[in-house]
C-alpha cells in the first residue's frame, strides 16, 4: 500500500500554483447533468475524488472526456439512475447526482452514504429539502430511492447551513416548476461558484444574505464552458506547511481573499501572511508566539477543513492553542498520530488544548481522512528526522500530486509502495 517517506526539517521555499477547488468541482460536475448536451469545465483538480465523480457520471451513461484539468461532460444520454454503494461509500459527494436525476427524470436510486471517520454524516437535510420540492423517498436495501412526477418549487429553511444540502437543493431547484427559496444556506465560496456556474448555463438565481431565490426554467444552455475557482483549503494547507518548516512561499491564487480568518490567526501568532495585488498569496515564517483560540464555523468562520493542518502547526507554537471543532463530531483523528511525534495535546470532547513545543520527532504514523492526512504532512515536514505516513490514499482524495508539488518547494517527500 502506498505510503509517504518524509525527511523533515527542510524549509519550503518557492512558488507554485494553487489548483481548482475540489469542493466546487464536485457539485459543478454533477450539476452539468442538468444540461441535455455538452458542458466544458476548466481548472478541475485531477485527484481521487474528481476521478470517482467521473466514474460515477460515466456509470450513468454520460460521456466524459478529460484533457489535463478540463473535463467535458455530455449528458444527453443518461441511461442509468443508480449511484452504487461501492462508489458512494468512497465519496459522499456522489449524492450530488440525486438533484439532476430527479430534476430531469423524476427518479434517483442513490446508496445511503453511511458514516465516515468524521462522524455519522447524515443526509436528513438533503431529503427534507427534496420533500419540499415534491419528492417521495423510500429506503430499500441501503439505497435512497426518490420519485417525483415533476419537481415543484418550494420554501426550504435549512436547520443548519449544510454545504452539501445547499448544493444539492439549488441544483434540483433550477429545473423545478415555479420558485424555490432556500434559507439559512451555506455561504462557502464553493457554493457561490456553483451558483455562478448554474447562472452561466441559464439558471435564474438571485440571493440575499439569508435566502437563495431560484425560479425554475424549462431548458438550459448547451456547449457552455466554465472555470472553477482555486482551492482555499489547499491554499491554507500549503501555507501552513511553509510556516511549519520555517520557510517562505508564494502561492499563485487570485484576488478573492477567501481565507481572511486564517490570515488573521497566522499573523496574530507572528507569521507574515498577505495577498498581494498580483493575486499571489504570501506565507512567510516568523517565530510563532502567543496563546490562541480557534472555533470552526460555517463560512466565513474558520473552516473545519483547515482545523487539522492548523492544529498541527500549533504543536510548534510558543503558546497554548485551544481548538473547538463545532462542525464534525470526530475530526481530531490526527491528534494521536502527532502525539506519536511528541506533540502535547489534551482532548476534552470536541475541544483540544495544544501546548506547543520546540520540535517534533519523526515516527511512523497513519492518515485517517483527507485533512487529517494533511496535518500529518505538516508535522512530518517540520519534524526532526524521518516519518513514514501510511494510508495516503486518504490524502490523494483531496490533493493532486501533493508530493510532486511539495518537492518543487524543497520538501524531501517520496511516495513508495514497498
Ligand atoms: C462539505 O461536506 C465538504 N465536502 C467537507 O469537506 C467540509 O468539511 C464540509 O462541507 C463543511 O464545510 C464537500 O464539499 C465534498 P455539511 P458536507 O453538509 O456537505 C451535518 C473535505 O475534506 N449534516 O456542511 O458533508 C454533518 O453531519 C471535506 O474536503 C447533517 O446533520 O458538509 C456535519 O456535522 C470533508 N445533516 C455538518 O452538518 C445533513 O443532511 C456539516 O455538514 C447534512 C449535514
Task: Give the arrangement of secondary structure elements.
Layout: E1 3-7, E2 13-17, H1 22-31, E3 38-42, H2 48-59, E4 63-67, E5 70-74, E6 82-83, H3 85-88, H4 98-105, E7 107-111, H5 124-132, E8 136-140, E9 143-147, E10 155-157, H6 163-173, E11 179-183, H7 189-200, E12 204-207, E13 211-215, E14 224-227, H8 232-244, E15 248-252, H9 260-269, E16 272-275, E17 280-284, E18 292-295, H10 307-314, E19 320-324, H11 335-339, E20 344-348, E21 351-355, E22 364-366, H12 370-382, E23 386-390, H13 393-396, H14 402-407, E24 412-416
Parallel strand pairs: 2-15, 3-14, 6-7, 10-11, 18-19, 22-23
Antiparallel strand pairs: 1-23, 1-24, 3-5, 4-5, 7-9, 8-9, 11-13, 12-13, 15-17, 16-17, 19-21, 20-21
Helix pairs in contact: 1-2, 1-7, 4-6, 5-6, 6-7, 8-10, 8-12, 10-12
The structure holds ligand EPZ.
Amino acid at each position: 500500500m502506498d505510503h509517504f517517506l518524509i525527511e523533515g526539517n527542510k524549509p519550503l521555499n518557492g512558488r507554485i500554483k494553487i489548483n481548482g477547488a475540489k469542493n466546487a468541482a464536485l457539485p459543478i460536475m454533477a450539476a452539468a447533468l442538468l444540461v441535455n448536451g455538452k458542458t466544458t469545465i476548466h481548472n478541475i483538480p485531477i485527484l481521487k475524488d474528481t476521478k470517482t465523480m467521473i466514474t460515477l457520471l460515466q456509470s450513468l451513461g454520460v460521456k466524459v472526456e478529460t484533457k489535463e484539468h478540463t473535463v467535458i461532460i455530455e449528458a444527453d444520454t443518461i441511461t442509468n439512475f443508480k449511484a452504487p454503494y461501492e462508489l458512494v461509500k468512497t465519496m459522499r459527494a456522489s449524492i450530488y447526482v440525486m438533484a439532476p436525476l430527479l430534476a430531469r427524470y423524476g427518479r434517483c436510486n442513490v446508496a445511503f452514504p453511511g458514516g465516515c471517520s468524521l462522524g455519522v454524516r447524515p443526509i436528513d437535510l438533503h431529503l427534507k429539502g427534496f420533500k419540499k420540492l415534491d419528492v417521495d423517498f423510500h429506503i430499500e436495501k441501503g439505497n435512497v430511492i426518490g420519485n417525483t412526477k415533476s419537481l415543484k418549487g418550494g420554501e426550504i429553511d435549512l436547520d443548519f447551513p449544510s454545504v452539501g444540502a445547499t448544493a444539492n437543493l439549488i441544483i434540483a431547484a433550477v429545473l423545478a416548476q415555479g420558485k424555490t427559496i432556500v434559507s439559512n444556506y451555506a455561504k462557502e465560496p464553493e457554493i457561490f461558484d456553483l451558483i455562478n456556474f448554474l447562472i452561466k448555463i441559464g439558471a435564474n438565481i438571485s440571493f440575499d444574505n439569508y435566502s437563495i431565490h431560484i425560479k425554475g426554467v424549462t431548458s438550459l444552455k448547451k456547449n457552455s464552458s466554465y472555470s472553477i475557482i482555486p482551492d482555499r483549503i489547499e491554499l491554507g494547507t500549503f501555507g501552513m506547511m511553509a510556516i511549519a518548516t520555517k520557510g517562505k512561499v508564494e502561492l499563485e491564487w487570485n484576488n478573492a481573499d477567501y481565507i481572511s480568518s486564517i490570515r488573521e490567526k497566522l499573523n496574530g501568532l507572528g507569521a507574515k501572511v498577505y495577498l498581494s495585488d498580483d493575486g499571489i498569496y504570501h506565507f512567510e515564517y516568523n517565530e510563532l508566539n502567543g496563546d490562541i483560540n480557534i472555533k470552526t464555523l460555517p463560512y466565513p468562520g474558520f473552516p473545519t477543513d483547515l482545523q487539522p493542518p492548523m492544529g498541527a502547526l500549533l504543536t510548534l507554537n510558543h503558546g497554548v492553542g485551544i481548538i473547538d471543532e463545532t462542525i464534525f463530531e470526530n475530526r481530531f483523528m490526527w491528534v494521536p498520530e502527532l502525539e506519536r511525534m511528541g506533540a502535547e495535546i489534551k482532548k476534552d470532547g470536541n475541544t483540544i488544548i495544544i501546548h506547543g513545543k520546540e520540535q517534533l520527532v519523526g515516527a511512523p504514523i497513519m492518515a485517517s481522512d483527507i485533512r487529517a492526512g494533511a496535518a500529518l504532512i505538516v508535522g512530518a515536514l517540520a519534524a526532526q528526522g524521518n516519518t513514514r505516513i501510511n494510508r495516503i490514499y486518504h490524502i490523494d482524495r483531496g490533493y493532486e500530486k501533493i508530493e510532486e508539488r511539495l518537492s518543487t518547494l524543497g520538501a524531501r517527500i517520496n511516495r513508495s509502495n514497498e
